[in-house]
Amino acid sequence: MSDIIQLLPDSVANQIAAGEVVQRPASAVKELLENAIDAGANKIQLIIKDAGKALIQVIDNGCGMSVTDARMCFERHATSKVRKAEDLFAIRTMGFRGEAMASIAAIAQVEMKTRRHEDEVGTLIEIEGATFIKQEPVATSEGTSISIKNLFYNTPARRNFLKSNPAETRHIIDEFQRVAMAHPGIAFSLHHDGAEIYRLPSSPLKQRIVHLFGNNYNERLIPVEEETTIINLKGFIGKPEFAKKTRGEQFFFVNNRYIKDAYLNHAVNRAYEELLADDNFPLYVLFIEIDPAKIDVNVHPTKTEIKYLDEKSIYAILHSAVKRSLGRFNISPTIDFDQETGFSNMITHKAPEEIVPPSISFNPDFNPFADEKSASTRDAAYASFSKNYGGGGGGMSPSTKNWGSLYEIAKESPAEQSSLDLPETNTDGQFAPVQKQLMQLHNRYIISQIKSGLMLIDQQAAHERILYERFILHLEDRKGASQQSLFPQTVTLSPNDYELAKSLLDDIKSLGFEVREFGKNTLVIEGIPVDLGSNNINETQLFEHLIEGFKNSQQELRLDKRDSLARSMARNSAIKSGTVLGQAEMNTLIEQLFACKTPNFSISGRPVIQTIGLTELDKKFDK
Asked: Start and end of every MutL C-terminal dimerisation domain (predicted)?
């Protein structure tokens, strides 16, 4: 039998390596930007067309390359940063593997112009699919300009796996933000299809964050700084009230390299305990400076994971530093142990205020054991009680209405009570409620009597289910009715969210929004869905929450675009727990709920309706 193992041709080996290094246009953007930083540039331009599929161009004013280096940089494992194995544990540059340029050249048409500061002319190199086409002298400015055209042109299967242009553009913006944030001293610019997305001057870190995410972030940031013998920590965290439903604004940098680390992320989240809900995530941009000998960056092809020599100590330092910053800026509650509050009036020489003891109100004439013959007496007593205690502003007025409703229900005979019950189903197999007396429990649940006992309905989950099914129909029929705003509102989004909103614009309009583009990263909201009513809705805030909720739904459940949009809209538009509802509102809510296709479950999969049978109630009373 003949030998079957043989060496792969360079072109095939390069394409295999490209599968690890260049997964999408954003991967190539990251590698080129990092190379420009390693070249010592202080001004970097990124130009993309067709979401990076047609063109990715990076222009820098770095040190440039000689004729030999320009050719060598496209060879596999050719690098200027590593000479021996020990160098892997002393890396302070962004790139070091020597695979990026060779991998990119294997799957694209590459043109590079480069010139060193001391040279009079530069070098032009053209490569297609790892094959050198041209190398010649050229007049060019100092630094390097690399153009990547027709990415994956010779691997059409890989190109078919790319997402839509807006999705790929968002990935490019993500990579651009990470690199720009890690190097605030470098000026960056980003142009997409001829439009300027970013122009970032050299600035301090806080200003760089504000320039990347928007002016409103200036008030959201809390500084963090800690110096220890293990690590030096600096950066910013976000105030709890500005936390979001998605993790998009969380950044760790180790020696200025962006990394993903669930363990360190847990340390930050623990510092926010009792300040945030479980489904909210804080903003943070944190930089860790550590001895390169105590970490290993050579554990992942994309260099986004790091191994630490003493990760438990780093965890503890990170957690305590974030916790201290939250306390120092009065974000977390504090207790003053130095002063007893009872002596505060004596210290300020003010006369103490009169202490008013708490009091309760009750109906002295109420007799629950009286028979029906004394009903008129009870009615008179209730009228007297309402007059004396219900309308005087003594805190009883909200409860007297409920007391009266329960009193009326209690007066009914068993036959009259059963006539008010909800029938189980109608002719279509759906629940068919009728108008009846309902009660709201703690402004969260609606209680209704049924033949077998009682029924509890979660009002927020019920309204979310109603709106979700309604918005799904609007998206399918493309007929969402709109209510025109008297004063159109403008909403300015981050470049990433703006690209997302543009890709969703047709579906957003189907929900009933009237929205149009208005300049750089700005939209004008001229109308909102009529389903939302007109109860003091903030159109700008609603739209921002819609985009944030859409990202959260896609991250959690991987739903299709329309379903995620409908869920986000329903969650942000539904009445919340704590909202007081009248009898007519509760009846309408129940009628609309039982008209839904799936009334029993919320859009999160939790129950909307719970029933408690008479048998179960009897057991509670040991009957």
From this structure: 437-581
Supply the pLDDT for residue 390.
Answer: 41
Crossing angle between the packed helical segments 561-573 and 495-511, to the nearest 10 degrees: 80
| Rg of the Cα atoms in the chain | 33
Q: What is the phi/psi pair of residue 388, to 5°?
A: -80, -35
CA neighbor of 263 nearest in space, from 301, 307, 220 = 307
- What is residue 315's predicted lDDT score, i.e. its pLDDT? 93
CATH number of 206-328: 3.30.230.10
Q: What is the DSSP letter of 64?
A: -
- Residue 2 DSSP label: -
Contact assessment for residue 464 and residue 570, using Cβ atoms and an 8 Å cutoff: yes
Nearest-angstrom CA–CA distance, 172 and 168: 6
CA distance 113 to 126: 9
Residue of 26 and 530 predicted with greater confidence: 26
Any idea what DSSP says for residue 492?
Answer: E
267, 234 in Cβ contact below 8 A? no
CA–CA separation, 301 and 20 (whole Å): 6
Cα 298 to the chain's mean position, in Å? 30
Res 363 pLDDT > 80:
no
Across the range 97-107, mean pLDDT stands at: 80
Stated as kind and residue range, the H or E segment containing 611 is: strand 609-613
Rounded distance between C-alpha atoms, residue 394 and residue 386, angstroms: 11
**Distance separating alpha carbons of residues 144 and 126, to the nearest angstrom:** 14
Averaged pLDDT score across all residues of the chain = 79
10-202: CATH topology is: Heat Shock Protein 90 (3.30.565)
Contact 433, 462 (CB under 8 A): no
CA distances from 341 to 333, 350, 353 (A): 16, 14, 14
User: What stretch(es) of the chain map to CATH 3.30.1540.20?
Assistant: 417-623
Single-letter code of the amino acid located at 263 = Y
Contact 528, 513 (CB under 8 A): yes
Write the CATH number of the domain with boundaries 417-623: 3.30.1540.20
Dihedral of the CA atoms 484, 489, 494, 498 (nearest 10)? 30
Per-residue pLDDT tens over the stretch 147-173 = 999 998 888 888 888 888 888 999 999
